[in-house]
Write a structure and sequence with these properties.
Blueprint: H1 14-35, H2 40-52, E1 57-60, H3 62-69, E2 77-80, H4 84-94, E3 97-99, E4 107-112, E5 115-121, E6 126-127, E7 134-135, H5 142-147, E8 157-160, E9 164-166, H6 171-177, E10 179-180, H7 186-192, H8 195-207, E11 210-211, H9 213-222, H10 231-242, H11 248-257, H12 260-263, H13 266-269, H14 283-300, H15 309-317, H16 322-325, E12 327-328, E13 334-335, H17 339-353, H18 358-370, H19 384-394, H20 398-407, H21 414-437, H22 449-456, H23 462-478, H24 483-502
Parallel strand pairs: 2-5, 10-11
Antiparallel strand pairs: 1-2, 1-8, 3-4, 4-5, 6-7, 8-9, 12-13
Helix pairs in contact: 2-4, 7-9, 8-10, 8-11, 14-15, 14-20, 15-18, 15-20, 17-18, 19-21
Length: 504
Amino acid sequence: MAGLSPVPAPSTPSASAADDLAALRTRAQITATKRLLPLQGVLGELGGLFADAGFTLALVGGPVRDALLGRASLDLDFTTDARPDDSVRLLRKWGDAHWEIGKEFGTVGARKGDHVVEVTTYRADVYDPASRKPEVAFGDTLEGDLARRDFTVNAMALVLPDLRFVDPFDGLGDLAAQVLRTPSTPEQSFSDDPLRMMRAARFAAQLGFHVAPEVGAALRDMAGRIEIVSAERVRTELEKLLLSPEPRPGIELLVESGLAGHVLPELPALKLEIDEHHRHKDVYEHSLTVLEQAIALEQAAPRPEGPDLVLRLAALLHDIGKPATRRFEPGGGVSFHHHETVGARLVSKRLKALRFDKVTVTEVARLVELHLRFHGYGDGGWTDSAVRRYVTDAGPLLDRLHKLTRSDCTTRNKRKAARLAASYDDLENRIAQLREQEELDAVRPDLDGNAIMEILGIPPGRDVGRAWAFLKELRLERGAIGPEAARAELLAWWEGEAGRSSTP
């Protein structure tokens, strides 16, 4: 861990161990103070404001953890003994704007310039094991508030304005050891809020931490309790996990603990299927490798808007149709015919159940449906018409489809990998060449609907749509032929349609 070393094991009398721990905490406070220097202004203002009113205010949770790790944190989360109405009154004085959404749970927010803060009254929640929501009860001590947090590394605080370091559950030691423990017993913690089990997987991905043995055991024993949590909250944690730089450890924890069996059951189901190429232990391992390779391609040309959730979901789930389509062939072979079509339906169903937005569901399912299309390309035997159809079918997803298809090559056979890469290079070159010759990204007929009605002398209706579809197919097959040639083809097609309709 940057800036800190693990707590040394006491090999001398306990006083020496206590001295070592005290020294570590002193270094931690110095480290955090240095790393929070850019925020000294807002921290000092808020701390002084609450202190002058007779209240305690502390920076808590993720911002403290990230300051110690040397990570940037966009969140400024505070906890206080002030009740929500008092916090609102003080934040109204300090900020340019404030909001009270979440006030019933003790949380209010404010903005001043570029700084956005949330202040939550000390909590001492009481949970009904059969309910999704806690019964909110406010607490009176900082230590009591920290005791109800998810993990010890998030149960550290800096009391303002002097940045006094508070760590009643040795989160600093766990931070140094890169381990996730709970302030209370994990059984109590996960019973209080089952979503914390998903957070364990998310932090395994985001921070690269491992769970303590007792936490792992509780995850396995209590995985089914995640079903009481709303799909929206589960989806949010899954998104954060997938958008981390290295999501694999978090995904593995979801699967190994049994959580995935409740929130994304199609994923552990892949462990039962042997990849037809026999280059991987199973399709599950193959899918994790595809995800890692897709992320590598994504990071090689990063998007201004950040990590690509659609690509990552498609990479992870592209083969989930294989269990339902596995067939054992004569001679010992295994086939998964049409698994891309089945997989697209399964992806759509699962992502809808997790309350993903409509655009994400549609785009991920479409990528899954198209991910095998390239394998018909062979040694460049596609006609220009086939290349046009590939681009048209992918539409705005073409760049993602390029990345997904390239990532799907996980063979250890270097010759085969090189051949596939060269073949896809050739396809991309052909697409670029056709783009120079044609408006390939917006393939449209050479005649629009108005021209069709004028040439054929027909009113708006079904026949116009049929004529437009004929011309679109012609455009895909032959490329741009110009309005005059398109007019002649349209009239010949229409005459044939008239002849067919008059045939007894």
